[in-house]
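This part of the workshop introduces the protein records we will be handling. An example says more than a description, so a record of this kind follows:
>
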Amino acid sequence: MKKLLCLLPWTEFCDVHLVKDVGLFPEYFEKEYKIPVDFVFLDNRKTGTKLSEWHGMNLIKLPSAENYIQAPSVKKNPIKFFKFIKIFTNFLRKTKDFYSHIMMFHVSSTTLYLVRFIRKLDKNIKIYVKADASKFSKRQWFYLKQILKKTDVLSVENEYLLRDINKKLPEYSEKVEYIPNGFDNIHFSVELLSVPKENLIIQTARFGTAPKNTQLLLKILSNVDLKDWNVILAGTIEKDFYSFIESFFREYPELKDKIHFIGNISDQNELYRLYARAKVFILTSRFESFAISLIEAAYFGDYIVSTDVGIASTIKNNFWGFVANGNPMEQKNDGQIITQMSNVVQKLIDNPEYCIVDKTEKDKIRRDFSMSNIVKNEIFKGFFE
C-alpha cells in the first residue's frame, strides 16, 4: 500500500505551516494521487502545533528530552547534530515498511544525512525534496549534488535557479523541476473573486523584520499623494518597531488616517477578502525565497508592485505588475528603488484604470498557480505512479 511521509526535522512546526506549501503539497498529493499522508516532526510543547490531524492527514510528534531552539549544525557541533538526527532515524528504522514515498524540505546537511539514511534502509522508497530556495550558498551546492544522487525528484521555486542547476549539474536535469508554490484553491470562498475593488493598497507581512524592510515601504508611501486611497498593512509588528511607526506618524501626521496597521488576520477567508478588495499589492522585501503573498494577491487580481524578490519577476514577465530594478539586498540601491516604486504607485493612484487586470490574464494565473493543477505536473505523476 502506498503511503507518503512528510518528514520535517525541524525544531518548530506550527499551525501556520499547514496552510502554506509545507501542508498544501502533501494535502493536494493525497487528493490527487489517493495516497495517505503522515507528518512527522519534533514535539515542541511551547510553540509547536497542538493538532494531531489536519484535513485527514496524521500529525505525529516525536518526543525529545532536549528543548532544541534550532537544528544543531554538523560543522559547529557534530555530537549535538547526530543526537538530534537520531530522533528521526530511530523513527525511520521502526517504520521503514510503512511508507512508499517520503517528502522533505530544504537543501541542508540534515536533509542530506537523512536522505542517505533512508536510501540505506530501503533502496525502493521514493524520495522528493522541495528545495524552498531562490539561490544556494557554496556549501548548499555541495549538499545539492549529494542529495540528487539519492533522491528521485527535487523541485525549486525559482526558474533562474533551475537554469543554474541544469547548467552546473546537467547529469541530474531529469530529476529537477521548477515547481512554484500555489494558491489553495479548495479552502476558500469562490464568491470572494467577485468582491468589488476599492482604492486600496495592501501588504501582508511581519512588519519590522529585517527581510520585510517596512522602513522602505513607509518611505515610499511618504513620497506619494494618496488622495482618496487607503493603505492597509496586515500582520504582526515586531516589538522594537512600534517606536519607528510612532516617529513616522509624528513626521507625517497627515498619513495617520491613511495608513492602517491592523494586526494579524488569522482567518484565511478574511485575509483573502482583503486581497479581493485591494487594487494594489506592494512588497518591499529585501529577500524572499518565494513570496506566496504575491501569488495570493495576483490570484485576486491585485496589481503587483514589488522589489525583485521571489516570484515577483515571473509574475511581472508573464502576467502583470512592476518590479523595481536593483538588488534589494544592497542598501545602496534603496534610493533608486524608492524613486521607482513611488513613481509607479503614484501613477496607479492617478490612473486607477491601470490597476485593472484583464480577465484572460487573471484566469491564466489562477490556472497556472492553483495547487490542484501544480500537483498534476508530469514529474509528480511519475513519482507517484
Q: What stands out?
A: The first strand starts at residue 4 and ends at 8. DSSP finds 15 helices and 14 strands in the chain. The chain has a mean pLDDT of 95.
